[in-house]
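Note to self: the last two entries modelled the partners one at a time, which told us nothing about the interface. This time every component goes in together.
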Amino acid sequence: MSTAIASNSPSKWVVLPHYAFSAVSFLGLCLLLLLSTDAFGGHYFHPKLLTLTHVAVLGWATMVIFGALYQLLPVVLEGRLYSEKLALCTFAFLGTGTILLAYSFWFFKVGLPMHLAACCLFLSFLLFNLNLIQTARKAPKWTIEADFIVTSAVWLLLTGFIGLLMSVNLSRPFLPQDHVHYLQLHAHIGMAGWFLLLIIGVGAKLIPMFLLAHVEGTKQLTWSYNLINAGLGLFIIDHLFLHTPLLPLYALLVGGGVGAFLLFLWEAKKTRQRADLDLGMQQTFVALGLLVLPLLLALVVGSGVALPMPLLSSLYLVYGLTVFLGFITALILGQTFKTLPFIVWMHAYEDLVGRYKTPLPKDLYNHSLLRWQNISYLLGFVVLVTGVLLREPQLILAGAIALTLAAVLFTANVFHLLLHKVHELKPFPYGNARP
Amino acid sequence: METPAPEVRQQVLETLKYIIDPEVGLNIVDLGLVYSVQLTQERLYIELTLTTRGCPMGATITTATQQILQKRFPRYDVQVEVVWGPMWSPEMITEEGRRQLEQI
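The predicted structure of the combined assembly is written out below.
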């Protein structure tokens, strides 16, 4: 007999559709980017740019984060996910909301389609919060990673609520200040509150695990959590009520929080037992490097330095690009090949462990495709950002083409994994042989 | 003829090397997860740990340990227990494990 250790992992039908939807969204995002090179010449409040941004943050990033979290929450919170049915409803609302919102922004239908989209998305975030909080309530031990994850979900709900109000405001204006004012609030709560906190919370658990590292204490993470929330909270109060010129201070607080997280990772890197970084981890560290760009840009844009209007417009666009197509996209491109192969492997081979010679998760995807995906992505991103800064449509198009190539390679590899079939395996003899 | 206990213990460890942690790519013995192997007349008792609490491989590793040992040593009643003291850390990887990690 053995002591009962029940598997807390959810069904693959809860997790894997998120990865599939997300990969298709990334491909769709890059194809839309190819059709939007004319949109980068002016203000960021442009139908095509709004479409691109929302496909990136919802269909691409939030979708895969939800899927990965359903797998990871049982590890962080040491218990089963509260409800798999709720997770599937969340998926349906998020998917429907994303498609409807993309349609609404692209054709700028600010009436019913956009209202429906915003309602679907808000409902999705509400159900996600319900599932997460109910799961967290049963956690036998509370950790700083859980703090990051739960708080980020609450910020996501607030982001969705502001988005819902703005969707109504577009067709029936009722908010006291202009629309862009709330757009800035909506965007920053989403970026720092949802994505940044969530990524730090998950990264603090996964990155040391993947590096086989052991960090004593969580002091840096506590600082990171407090600084980011303080910076964001003060920014919201200031933006809504005070309107002081202290924006760079709030950016510095958030930057300090990121710095504390990077210190934590530095400690992890020093104690790692794995000398070589695989392609997934290399891409993850590229993403962490790219995180510095939006923080610097936030300081420049928020400082109120007198810059020519065209340059300021370009900087705003680059700021958004460095967050969504830079840091977040780079991270997902890398971490997908750390999480998805393991999830696919577990569902295919867990019952065969110790009885048959099974492949390892790293054997389930094409490393050559991944290498070219990473190269193509980085090239595309640098060329695109340069094109936007210089307002050069040909460069923007070239960047979009390279990113589309990266998306094709990524999607091919993801579906190769999702459609993996178990082949005939050799049983172990259990002799004196070494495995 | 009965197999002496130290030899059985060695055979147990060799058998458990067939169980590989899929993420790390190392077997659970060289990864340092097997804390103790105790043997009595009728009972084979294994204490092992996991790399982290809530590890998604927990159920797979304990079940595989139970099944593989029961098949290899049918005359013993195999008992597997997951323990958390001391907590696993990467320093527990064996020299052989470190050597293998460098090659992965």
